[in-house]
Amino acid sequence: MPLFSHRLSHSLPVSSSSSSSSHSYSSKPLKPLKPAVSFPITVFPVICLVFGLAGTIFAVSVLRRPIPLPIFRCGNAEDTFRSFYSASNSRQLGDNGGLVDRPKLLGFVGIQTGFGSADRRAALRATWFSSDPDGLLRLEQATGLAFRFVIGRTKDAKKIGQLRKEVDKYKDFMLIDAEEEYANLPYKTLAFFKAAFALFEADYYVKADDDIYLRPDRLATLLAKERKHSQTYIGCMKKGPVITDPKLKWYEISGHLLGNEYFQHAYGPIYVLSAEVVASLATARNNSLRMFSNEDVTIGSWMLAMNVQHEDNRALCDPRCTPTSIAVWDIPKCSGLCNPATRLKELHAIDMCSKSPTLPPDDR
Protein backbone atom coordinates (compact mmCIF):
# COMPACT_ATOMS: atom_id res chain seq x y z
CA MET A 1 0.00 0.00 0.00
CA PRO A 2 1.26 3.48 -0.70
CA LEU A 3 2.79 5.30 2.19
CA PHE A 4 0.22 8.13 2.14
CA SER A 5 -2.90 5.88 2.25
CA HIS A 6 -1.32 3.63 4.90
CA ARG A 7 -0.97 6.54 7.32
CA LEU A 8 -4.53 7.67 6.67
CA SER A 9 -5.93 4.27 7.61
CA HIS A 10 -4.41 4.52 11.06
CA SER A 11 -5.69 8.05 11.64
CA LEU A 12 -9.37 7.41 10.95
CA PRO A 13 -11.85 6.34 13.86
CA VAL A 14 -12.74 2.69 14.17
CA SER A 15 -16.07 1.33 15.69
CA SER A 16 -16.79 -2.15 16.94
CA SER A 17 -20.24 -3.70 17.62
CA SER A 18 -18.90 -6.11 20.23
CA SER A 19 -17.57 -3.38 22.52
CA SER A 20 -19.81 -1.88 25.18
CA SER A 21 -17.77 1.19 25.80
CA SER A 22 -17.53 4.13 23.45
CA HIS A 23 -14.27 5.62 22.31
CA SER A 24 -13.79 9.34 21.76
CA TYR A 25 -11.72 10.85 19.04
CA SER A 26 -8.32 12.18 20.06
CA SER A 27 -8.20 15.96 20.31
CA LYS A 28 -4.52 16.11 19.34
CA PRO A 29 -4.21 17.61 15.84
CA LEU A 30 -2.61 15.52 13.14
CA LYS A 31 0.79 16.63 11.89
CA PRO A 32 0.88 17.54 8.21
CA LEU A 33 2.43 14.82 6.15
CA LYS A 34 5.68 15.62 4.32
CA PRO A 35 5.71 14.41 0.73
CA ALA A 36 8.27 11.83 -0.08
CA VAL A 37 11.07 13.37 -2.14
CA SER A 38 12.19 11.33 -5.14
CA PHE A 39 15.95 11.38 -5.81
CA PRO A 40 15.64 11.67 -9.64
CA ILE A 41 13.37 14.72 -9.34
CA THR A 42 16.03 16.51 -7.29
CA VAL A 43 18.97 15.72 -9.64
CA PHE A 44 17.18 16.36 -12.98
CA PRO A 45 17.30 20.20 -12.85
CA VAL A 46 21.01 20.07 -12.00
CA ILE A 47 21.71 17.81 -14.99
CA CYS A 48 19.73 20.12 -17.27
CA LEU A 49 21.73 23.10 -16.02
CA VAL A 50 25.05 21.35 -16.64
CA PHE A 51 24.05 20.34 -20.17
CA GLY A 52 22.78 23.84 -20.89
CA LEU A 53 26.05 25.43 -19.79
CA ALA A 54 28.07 22.90 -21.78
CA GLY A 55 25.99 23.60 -24.92
CA THR A 56 26.46 27.35 -24.51
CA ILE A 57 30.24 27.00 -24.10
CA PHE A 58 30.44 24.72 -27.16
CA ALA A 59 28.39 27.15 -29.30
CA VAL A 60 30.63 30.08 -28.31
CA SER A 61 33.78 28.07 -29.07
CA VAL A 62 32.45 27.10 -32.50
CA LEU A 63 31.64 30.70 -33.35
CA ARG A 64 35.11 31.85 -32.29
CA ARG A 65 36.92 29.04 -34.07
CA PRO A 66 38.22 29.78 -37.61
CA ILE A 67 36.15 28.23 -40.40
CA PRO A 68 37.80 25.01 -41.62
CA LEU A 69 39.84 25.61 -44.76
CA PRO A 70 38.12 24.34 -47.90
CA ILE A 71 40.54 22.40 -50.08
CA PHE A 72 40.13 22.76 -53.82
CA ARG A 73 40.99 19.34 -55.12
CA CYS A 74 40.47 16.90 -57.92
CA GLY A 75 41.37 13.48 -56.61
CA ASN A 76 44.83 14.01 -55.14
CA ALA A 77 45.48 17.27 -57.03
CA GLU A 78 45.20 20.48 -54.99
CA ASP A 79 45.17 24.19 -55.79
CA THR A 80 46.88 25.70 -52.74
CA PHE A 81 46.25 29.28 -53.93
CA ARG A 82 42.44 29.14 -53.84
CA SER A 83 42.56 27.14 -50.62
CA PHE A 84 44.40 30.09 -49.07
CA TYR A 85 41.95 32.70 -50.34
CA SER A 86 38.95 30.72 -49.14
CA ALA A 87 40.10 31.28 -45.54
CA SER A 88 39.36 35.04 -45.65
CA ASN A 89 35.99 36.64 -46.34
CA SER A 90 37.73 39.83 -47.42
CA ARG A 91 39.54 38.08 -50.24
CA GLN A 92 37.26 36.88 -53.00
CA LEU A 93 37.63 35.14 -56.33
CA GLY A 94 35.18 34.66 -59.16
CA ASP A 95 32.46 36.79 -60.74
CA ASN A 96 29.86 35.67 -58.20
CA GLY A 97 31.53 37.59 -55.38
CA GLY A 98 33.20 34.56 -53.82
CA LEU A 99 35.16 31.43 -54.51
CA VAL A 100 33.96 29.20 -57.30
CA ASP A 101 34.83 25.56 -57.73
CA ARG A 102 35.99 25.92 -61.35
CA PRO A 103 36.75 29.56 -62.23
CA LYS A 104 36.48 30.74 -65.85
CA LEU A 105 39.76 32.00 -67.29
CA LEU A 106 41.34 32.94 -70.59
CA GLY A 107 44.17 30.58 -69.77
CA PHE A 108 45.70 28.46 -67.04
CA VAL A 109 49.52 28.39 -66.97
CA GLY A 110 51.22 25.54 -65.14
CA ILE A 111 54.90 26.21 -64.45
CA GLN A 112 56.42 22.74 -64.24
CA THR A 113 58.95 22.52 -61.42
CA GLY A 114 60.71 19.97 -59.24
CA PHE A 115 61.93 19.45 -55.69
CA GLY A 116 65.46 20.55 -56.61
CA SER A 117 64.37 23.79 -58.27
CA ALA A 118 63.77 26.09 -55.30
CA ASP A 119 66.37 28.54 -56.64
CA ARG A 120 64.54 28.79 -59.97
CA ARG A 121 61.23 29.45 -58.23
CA ALA A 122 62.89 32.13 -56.11
CA ALA A 123 64.29 33.78 -59.24
CA LEU A 124 60.89 33.64 -60.96
CA ARG A 125 59.20 35.23 -57.94
CA ALA A 126 61.83 37.97 -58.05
CA THR A 127 61.07 38.69 -61.73
CA TRP A 128 57.86 38.17 -63.73
CA PHE A 129 56.11 35.72 -61.37
CA SER A 130 54.55 37.41 -58.33
CA SER A 131 56.11 36.79 -54.91
CA ASP A 132 52.89 37.04 -52.89
CA PRO A 133 49.30 35.78 -53.23
CA ASP A 134 47.77 39.25 -53.61
CA GLY A 135 50.17 40.05 -56.44
CA LEU A 136 49.39 36.74 -58.12
CA LEU A 137 45.69 37.53 -57.88
CA ARG A 138 46.24 40.98 -59.42
CA LEU A 139 48.19 39.35 -62.26
CA GLU A 140 45.29 36.98 -62.87
CA GLN A 141 42.77 39.82 -62.88
CA ALA A 142 44.91 41.92 -65.26
CA THR A 143 45.64 39.18 -67.80
CA GLY A 144 42.89 36.58 -67.40
CA LEU A 145 45.65 34.02 -66.79
CA ALA A 146 46.12 31.98 -63.61
CA PHE A 147 49.68 30.90 -62.79
CA ARG A 148 50.77 28.04 -60.53
CA PHE A 149 53.93 26.06 -59.93
CA VAL A 150 53.13 22.42 -60.70
CA ILE A 151 54.85 19.65 -58.79
CA GLY A 152 54.24 15.95 -58.23
CA ARG A 153 54.80 13.65 -55.27
CA THR A 154 57.82 11.95 -53.70
CA LYS A 155 58.46 9.44 -50.92
CA ASP A 156 61.31 11.59 -49.57
CA ALA A 157 59.97 13.03 -46.29
CA LYS A 158 62.68 15.70 -46.14
CA LYS A 159 61.79 17.04 -49.59
CA ILE A 160 58.10 17.02 -48.71
CA GLY A 161 58.81 18.97 -45.52
CA GLN A 162 60.80 21.62 -47.39
CA LEU A 163 58.11 21.95 -50.03
CA ARG A 164 55.39 22.30 -47.39
CA LYS A 165 57.20 25.31 -45.90
CA GLU A 166 57.35 26.93 -49.35
CA VAL A 167 53.69 26.17 -50.02
CA ASP A 168 52.67 27.67 -46.68
CA LYS A 169 54.67 30.81 -47.41
CA TYR A 170 53.69 31.50 -51.04
CA LYS A 171 50.48 29.51 -51.69
CA ASP A 172 51.29 29.38 -55.42
CA PHE A 173 51.36 25.64 -56.16
CA MET A 174 49.25 23.03 -57.84
CA LEU A 175 50.07 19.67 -56.28
CA ILE A 176 49.35 16.77 -58.62
CA ASP A 177 49.21 13.01 -58.36
CA ALA A 178 52.31 12.02 -60.33
CA GLU A 179 55.74 10.76 -59.40
CA GLU A 180 58.23 13.64 -59.57
CA GLU A 181 61.20 12.42 -61.61
CA TYR A 182 62.63 13.21 -65.03
CA ALA A 183 61.84 9.82 -66.57
CA ASN A 184 58.20 10.29 -65.60
CA LEU A 185 57.67 13.64 -67.38
CA PRO A 186 55.15 12.36 -69.98
CA TYR A 187 52.98 10.94 -67.16
CA LYS A 188 53.36 14.10 -65.09
CA THR A 189 52.32 16.23 -68.08
CA LEU A 190 49.18 14.19 -68.64
CA ALA A 191 48.37 14.36 -64.91
CA PHE A 192 48.85 18.13 -65.07
CA PHE A 193 46.41 18.63 -67.94
CA LYS A 194 43.82 16.39 -66.27
CA ALA A 195 44.08 18.25 -62.96
CA ALA A 196 44.11 21.68 -64.60
CA PHE A 197 41.01 20.87 -66.62
CA ALA A 198 39.17 19.62 -63.54
CA LEU A 199 40.08 22.64 -61.40
CA PHE A 200 39.85 25.46 -63.97
CA GLU A 201 37.55 26.26 -66.86
CA ALA A 202 39.95 27.92 -69.29
CA ASP A 203 39.96 28.58 -73.01
CA TYR A 204 43.62 27.51 -73.12
CA TYR A 205 45.97 25.46 -70.96
CA VAL A 206 49.68 26.30 -71.04
CA LYS A 207 52.51 24.03 -70.06
CA ALA A 208 55.69 26.01 -69.27
CA ASP A 209 59.00 25.14 -67.63
CA ASP A 210 60.51 26.99 -64.67
CA ASP A 211 63.62 28.04 -66.63
CA ILE A 212 62.13 30.49 -69.15
CA TYR A 213 61.42 34.21 -68.97
CA LEU A 214 57.77 34.82 -69.74
CA ARG A 215 55.74 37.93 -70.55
CA PRO A 216 52.23 37.25 -69.13
CA ASP A 217 50.64 40.26 -70.84
CA ARG A 218 51.92 39.23 -74.26
CA LEU A 219 50.88 35.62 -73.69
CA ALA A 220 47.38 36.85 -72.86
CA THR A 221 47.31 38.87 -76.08
CA LEU A 222 48.30 35.79 -78.07
CA LEU A 223 45.60 33.64 -76.49
CA ALA A 224 42.91 36.30 -76.90
CA LYS A 225 43.35 36.26 -80.69
CA GLU A 226 40.42 34.71 -82.58
CA ARG A 227 41.03 31.33 -84.17
CA LYS A 228 38.96 29.40 -86.68
CA HIS A 229 39.99 25.99 -85.37
CA SER A 230 38.73 25.01 -81.91
CA GLN A 231 41.36 22.28 -81.51
CA THR A 232 44.60 24.22 -81.37
CA TYR A 233 48.21 23.36 -80.50
CA ILE A 234 50.46 26.44 -80.23
CA GLY A 235 54.22 26.40 -79.82
CA CYS A 236 57.58 26.60 -81.53
CA MET A 237 57.30 23.66 -83.90
CA LYS A 238 60.28 21.47 -84.79
CA LYS A 239 61.28 18.27 -86.56
CA GLY A 240 64.49 16.29 -86.47
CA PRO A 241 66.17 12.90 -86.38
CA VAL A 242 65.03 10.38 -83.81
CA ILE A 243 67.64 9.93 -81.06
CA THR A 244 68.61 6.26 -81.03
CA ASP A 245 71.89 6.44 -79.07
CA PRO A 246 71.28 5.16 -75.50
CA LYS A 247 74.14 7.35 -74.23
CA LEU A 248 72.36 10.58 -75.15
CA LYS A 249 69.94 12.41 -72.83
CA TRP A 250 67.01 12.35 -75.24
CA TYR A 251 67.38 8.71 -76.24
CA GLU A 252 64.04 7.38 -77.50
CA ILE A 253 63.46 3.82 -76.30
CA SER A 254 60.53 3.37 -78.72
CA GLY A 255 62.41 4.93 -81.61
CA HIS A 256 61.70 1.91 -83.79
CA LEU A 257 58.04 2.99 -83.84
CA LEU A 258 58.92 6.43 -85.16
CA GLY A 259 61.28 5.80 -88.02
CA ASN A 260 64.21 8.06 -88.78
CA GLU A 261 62.66 11.47 -88.18
CA TYR A 262 60.29 12.94 -85.62
CA PHE A 263 56.96 14.35 -86.77
CA GLN A 264 56.30 18.06 -86.25
CA HIS A 265 55.79 18.92 -82.60
CA ALA A 266 56.38 21.85 -80.23
CA TYR A 267 59.49 22.42 -78.18
CA GLY A 268 58.93 21.36 -74.58
CA PRO A 269 59.72 24.56 -72.58
CA ILE A 270 56.33 26.09 -73.45
CA TYR A 271 53.30 25.19 -75.55
CA VAL A 272 49.54 25.77 -75.47
CA LEU A 273 46.56 23.46 -75.90
CA SER A 274 43.01 24.66 -76.43
CA ALA A 275 40.22 23.60 -74.07
CA GLU A 276 38.70 21.10 -76.50
CA VAL A 277 42.02 19.29 -76.83
CA VAL A 278 42.60 19.16 -73.08
CA ALA A 279 39.03 17.94 -72.54
CA SER A 280 39.83 14.92 -74.72
CA LEU A 281 43.02 14.23 -72.76
CA ALA A 282 41.19 14.63 -69.45
CA THR A 283 38.66 11.94 -70.35
CA ALA A 284 41.19 9.50 -71.82
CA ARG A 285 41.35 6.15 -70.07
CA ASN A 286 44.54 5.28 -68.20
CA ASN A 287 47.15 3.57 -70.37
CA SER A 288 45.15 4.35 -73.53
CA LEU A 289 47.73 6.89 -74.80
CA ARG A 290 51.15 5.99 -76.15
CA MET A 291 53.99 7.26 -73.95
CA PHE A 292 57.38 7.99 -75.49
CA SER A 293 60.56 8.75 -73.58
CA ASN A 294 60.40 12.48 -74.29
CA GLU A 295 57.49 14.57 -73.06
CA ASP A 296 57.37 16.96 -76.05
CA VAL A 297 57.40 14.04 -78.51
CA THR A 298 54.65 12.32 -76.51
CA ILE A 299 52.40 15.38 -76.64
CA GLY A 300 53.14 15.83 -80.34
CA SER A 301 52.08 12.25 -81.08
CA TRP A 302 48.76 12.81 -79.33
CA MET A 303 48.18 16.00 -81.30
CA LEU A 304 48.70 14.12 -84.57
CA ALA A 305 46.21 11.47 -83.52
CA MET A 306 43.63 14.12 -82.56
CA ASN A 307 43.94 16.03 -85.84
CA VAL A 308 44.53 19.39 -84.16
CA GLN A 309 45.61 22.65 -85.77
CA HIS A 310 49.38 23.21 -85.36
CA GLU A 311 50.19 26.89 -84.86
CA ASP A 312 53.91 27.70 -85.08
CA ASN A 313 54.76 30.86 -83.10
CA ARG A 314 58.43 31.79 -82.80
CA ALA A 315 57.68 34.47 -80.19
CA LEU A 316 57.41 31.57 -77.74
CA CYS A 317 61.09 30.66 -78.20
CA ASP A 318 62.94 33.94 -78.65
CA PRO A 319 66.62 33.79 -77.61
CA ARG A 320 66.54 37.49 -76.68
CA CYS A 321 64.10 40.14 -75.55
CA THR A 322 62.39 41.85 -78.47
CA PRO A 323 59.21 43.96 -78.89
CA THR A 324 57.31 40.77 -79.78
CA SER A 325 58.93 38.08 -77.60
CA ILE A 326 56.53 36.17 -75.35
CA ALA A 327 58.92 33.59 -73.89
CA VAL A 328 62.70 34.03 -73.84
CA TRP A 329 65.13 31.15 -73.45
CA ASP A 330 68.51 30.07 -74.81
CA ILE A 331 67.41 28.12 -77.87
CA PRO A 332 69.20 26.11 -79.24
CA LYS A 333 72.00 26.02 -76.64
CA CYS A 334 69.78 24.91 -73.77
CA SER A 335 66.29 23.54 -73.33
CA GLY A 336 65.34 26.65 -71.38
CA LEU A 337 67.69 29.28 -70.03
CA CYS A 338 71.28 28.26 -69.39
CA ASN A 339 71.92 28.90 -65.67
CA PRO A 340 68.29 30.02 -65.21
CA ALA A 341 68.48 31.32 -61.61
CA THR A 342 70.98 33.97 -62.72
CA ARG A 343 69.74 34.59 -66.26
CA LEU A 344 66.16 35.26 -65.15
CA LYS A 345 67.29 38.22 -63.06
CA GLU A 346 69.61 39.48 -65.79
CA LEU A 347 66.80 39.47 -68.35
CA HIS A 348 64.40 41.16 -65.95
CA ALA A 349 66.84 44.04 -65.60
CA ILE A 350 66.51 44.71 -69.34
CA ASP A 351 63.69 47.17 -70.06
CA MET A 352 62.87 45.43 -73.34
CA CYS A 353 62.09 42.30 -71.31
CA SER A 354 60.21 43.72 -68.36
CA LYS A 355 58.89 47.16 -69.34
CA SER A 356 58.33 47.36 -73.08
CA PRO A 357 54.69 47.78 -74.11
CA THR A 358 52.59 44.88 -75.28
CA LEU A 359 51.75 45.01 -78.97
CA PRO A 360 48.09 44.89 -80.00
CA PRO A 361 46.87 41.61 -81.57
CA ASP A 362 46.93 43.02 -85.13
CA ASP A 363 50.68 43.59 -84.92
CA ARG A 364 51.52 39.97 -84.18
Automatic annotation (TrEMBL):
Domain of life: Eukaryota
Cell location: Golgi apparatus membrane
UniProt-listed InterPro entries: Glyco_trans_31
Annotated pathway: Protein modification; protein glycosylation
Assigned keywords, A-Z: Glycoprotein, Glycosyltransferase, Golgi apparatus, Manganese, Membrane, Signal-anchor, Transferase, Transmembrane, Transmembrane helix
Key word Glycoprotein present: yes
Name recorded for this polypeptide: Hexosyltransferase
